[in-house]
């Protein structure tokens, strides 16, 4: 559920989509703000929808895919037991008919829908679900290991019923069953050490046509899908690394929808195209390599964070569409604590006294060269840090190269974003503060027993009041240790042609959603 660089698609179900308010777009409509999910409606059948995306797909393995485009594709082809609603606030049955959490929160019983099949027509049973979770438990390359860790045992009761037993209370389990990484795999395709085909047989609304690893590929409608039939028969993806290039494709008709087009498009007059910037549960961040000098020193990390003018970053990188944020959680979270978002170079310089950067130092900053907001943010960061004697060298990279270096710890500073599809502690708090949960504490290398204990308290909170209290503890540790620097909330800025509006859109979950046929 953690999102890394660029964004996403519906988990296990076709989410209804009708653009903003479900109204026909005016020729030069430009929209900023969330979409009203109450206006979502079905659409007549459409043969093809062309989508321009920023990066290639490296994998659609549910336990490996984490780049935006990867998760977008996985979400459209993967079938999950539950599915998030358009606002990301509620999980509804997907492949499951029903689910029930025990009173103590330590077990969960699921009943599958009748007659489920994978896209190839073979039966999907509780044995496949159990095998999927067993793979997640043992697969060494599972980047979502922390999300599956509480599942101690899966008991198959019959072909349509199974029970999950947890090592602790797991109140967010049903919500998480709607996330793409929980897509159900075919038991017979799981090989030694958890190996699966590069294009596994799944059970979502679409099926991969050929190979998704090139610069262009397509998804076709899954005739065996258990949910509502999608209105679009075929979705064609084209990789266009440049944000302006993606927008140009929509304006010229080569694409119907473009993902991550850059916030500058919000203020443009675009006849026949509408632009949207929707709030999400995601933060943008400046990632520190906490194990690389001079960032091993918490005083240097805090000084860098204090020097950042997040208000200016919000204006330059997001045209003010996304609020500045110095806290760990997005402002849309019940645990949000944005903090002081203005720059304080004087205090930052005081913190640098006695450190390796007292008399100046140099840091390299990696970023995704296909991302407009990252390039704009980097320019402000470079200026801010120069004021405290820190020289920054900016290094744009391809998405895959960037995350390869992050995974190896081969960096000092890096831009990116992180978040979830819903407001659950199993996302940003868990992955960015708990090293044991399998994501290198959001690539920082940060390790803290105190932080892990605070996160565990949030993970087991059974009501909103307890969760708020737990989040307060998490926020206090984040402020004390400064493992990374949050910059702003994240918006999925996207554009759609008027004649395609309502067939596909991106809502609060940051998923690409496709309207059902009707």
Automatic annotation (TrEMBL):
PROSITE patterns: PROKAR_LIPOPROTEIN. GO terms for molecular function: peptide transmembrane transporter activity. Residues 91-434 form the Solute-binding protein family domain. It is found in: Cell envelope. Pfam families: SBP_bac_5. InterPro entries: Peptide/Ni-bd, SBP_5, SBP_5_dom. Its main location: other. It comes from the Bacteria. CDD domains: PBP2_NikA_DppA_OppA_like. SUPFAM superfamilies: Periplasmic binding protein-like II. Residues 1-24 form the signal peptide. One of its GO terms (cellular component) is cell envelope. One of its GO terms (biological process) is peptide transport. Keywords: Signal, Transport. Belongs to the bacterial solute-binding protein 5 family. This is Diguanylate cyclase. The lineage of its organism: Bacteria, Bacillati, Actinomycetota, Actinomycetes, Streptosporangiales.
């Amino acid at each position: 559920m953690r999102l890394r660089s660029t964004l996403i698609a519906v988990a296990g179900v076709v989410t209804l989509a009708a653009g903003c308010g479900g109204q026909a777009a005016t020729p030069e409509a430009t929209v900023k703000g969330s979409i009203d999910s109450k206006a979502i409606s079905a659409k007549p059948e459409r043969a093809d929808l062309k989508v321009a995306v920023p990066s290639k797909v490296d994998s659609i393995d549910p336990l490996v895919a984490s780049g935006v485009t990867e998760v977008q594709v996985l979400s459209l082809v993967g079938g999950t037991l539950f599915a998030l609603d358009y606002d990301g606030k509620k999980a509804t049955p997907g492949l499951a008919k029903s689910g029930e959490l025990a009173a103590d929160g330590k077990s969960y019983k699921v009943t599958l829908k009748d007659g489920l099949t994978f896209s190839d027509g073979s039966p999907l049973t509780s044995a496949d679900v159990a095998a999927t979770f067993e793979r997640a438990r043992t697969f060494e390359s599972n980047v979502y290991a922390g999300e599956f860790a509480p599942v101690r045992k899966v008991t198959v009761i019959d072909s349509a019923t199974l029970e999950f037993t947890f090592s602790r209370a797991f109140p967010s389990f049903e919500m998480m069953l709607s996330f793409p990484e929980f897509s159900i795999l075919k038991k017979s395709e799981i090989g030694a050490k958890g190996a699966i085909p590069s294009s596994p047989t799944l059970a979502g609304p679409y099926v991969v046509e050929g190979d998704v690893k090139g610069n262009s590929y397509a998804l076709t409608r899954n005739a065996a899908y258990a949910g509502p039939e999608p209105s679009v028969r075929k979705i064609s993806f084209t990789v266009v690394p440049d944000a302006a290039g993606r927008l140009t494709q929509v304006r010229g008709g080569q694409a119907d929808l473009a993902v991550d087009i850059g916030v500058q498009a919000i203020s443009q007059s675009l006849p026949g195209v509408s632009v949207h910037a929707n709030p999400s549960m995601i933060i943008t961040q400046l990632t520190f390599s906490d194990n690389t000098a001079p960032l091993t020193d918490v005083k240097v990390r805090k000084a860098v964070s204090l020097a950042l003018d997040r208000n200016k970053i919000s204006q330059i990188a997001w045209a003010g569409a996304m609020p500045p944020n110095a806290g760990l959680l997005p402002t849309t979270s019940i645990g949000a604590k944005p903090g002081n978002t203005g720059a304080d170079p004087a205090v930052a310089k005081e913190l640098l006294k006695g450190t390796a950067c007292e008399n100046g130092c140099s840091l390299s900053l990696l970023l995704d060269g296909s991302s407009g907001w990252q390039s704009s943010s980097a320019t402000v960061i470079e200026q801010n840090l120069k004021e405290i004697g820190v020289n920054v060298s900016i290094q744009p990279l391809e998405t895959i190269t960037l995350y390869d270096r992050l995974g190896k710890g081969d960096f000092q500073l890096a831009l990116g974003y992180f978040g979830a599809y819903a407001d659950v502690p199993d996302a940003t708090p868990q992955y960015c503060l708990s090293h044991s949960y399998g994501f290198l504490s959001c690539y920082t290398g940060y390790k803290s027993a105190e932080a892990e204990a605070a996160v565990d308290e949030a993970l087991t909170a059974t009501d909103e009041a307890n969760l708020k209290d737990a989040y307060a503890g998490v926020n206090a540790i984040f402020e004390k240790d400064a493992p990374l620097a949050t910059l702003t909330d994240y918006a999925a800025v996207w554009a759609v042609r008027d004649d395609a509006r309502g067939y596909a859109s991106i809502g609060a979950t940051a998923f690409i959603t496709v309207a059902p046929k009707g």
